[in-house]
Design a protein that fits this description.
Layout (H helix, E strand, L loop, with lengths): L10 E3 L10 H16 L2 E5 L5 H15 L3 H4 L21 E7 L4 H11 L5 H28 L6 H6 L1 E10 L4 E11 L5 E6 L5 E4 L5 E3 L6 E6 L1 H6 L9 E7 L3 E10 L4 E2 L17 E2 H8 L2 H5 L3 H6 L2 H6 L1
Parallel strand pairs: 1-2
Antiparallel strand pairs: 2-9, 3-4, 4-11, 5-10, 6-9, 6-11, 7-8, 7-10, 12-13
Helix pairs in contact: 1-5, 2-5, 4-5
This protein binds 2-oxoglutaric acid (AKG) and fe (ii) ion (FE2).
Length: about 325
Amino acid sequence: MGSETPLKLPVIDFSNQSLTPGTTEWNTVRAQVHNALEEYGCFEALFNKVPSHIRKSIFQSIEELFDLPLQTKLQNVSKKPYHGYVGQYPMVPLYESMGVDDANVYEQVQSLTNTLWPQGNPSFCKTIQSFSEQVSELDQIIRRMILESLGLEKYLEEHLESTNYLLRVMKYKGPQTNEAKLGLNAHTDKNIVTILYQNQVDGLEVQTKDGKWINVKPSPDSFIAMIGDSLYAWTNGRLHSPYHRVMMSGNEARYSTGLFSIPKEGYIIKAPEEVVDEDHPLLFKPFDHVQFLGFYYSEAGQRAHSALKTYCGVQDLAFSN
Ligand SMILES: O=C(O)CCC(=O)C(=O)O
Ligand SMILES: [Fe+2]
């Protein structure tokens, strides 16, 4: 009857100056990261390395982007599925998003900027690139902590080099109702790690392992870090990749960003032998992320409850032993 404490994601502080590998501070935060990702696959990260002027200008840049005519936005295309402009879907009418491949690389952002603004837009370009580069530092800290906590640090270099960064920017229109409307369908992310950042309008919900929805209410200094299916598979199920969705109410638009670390095409995701043993039989056959994405966006992939299990799960073999 409203007396239950609302569920909350773990909050982990990465803003300590002395957060460097090998220190006690590092090991303490690493243990918190490991516990949060095992249980929720997700946590709220306090991270003060992104200067406040960039945190402000990122939302100005995103608004400017979505205010472009549809014809211009449609020029945001990519070879990979779901990396370019997405919107105008009858199922999720509030949602619109765009993607910047290799968003931490200046020349890549510049090329998209010049496509969208032939007369140039240096402040957009600089803001997107700096923001992505700074948030990618948090991605790398978290992934280093994950590998260390699983005893997989010998794979660190290969692991970090096996991915690129995609920045997706999202706009959810306010539905003009008090009743919550679906902004984005429940899904698991398909990549390695996702780091989300939002304006002051909440709406993200993350599902717990026992099926309850947590309303995420990050502070203005917080980022939400989340595990995707590719890392779930690579860690052989040691870390959870949670279902999440966006529910919108009210009049205000929600703007959010997601920095996705994504395995490069041709890199085969295969759980290292250290995480496979009798108690932890291999859950997924080795796979290429880009081919997996192709399956996910096919009709069969969209029908599957878990595209990952349908595509490369070996659970039937494990059960039949
Ligand atoms: O807008 C958000 O906070 C979540 C977006 C999301 O889940 C996604 O793009 O995969
Ligand atoms: Fe997502």
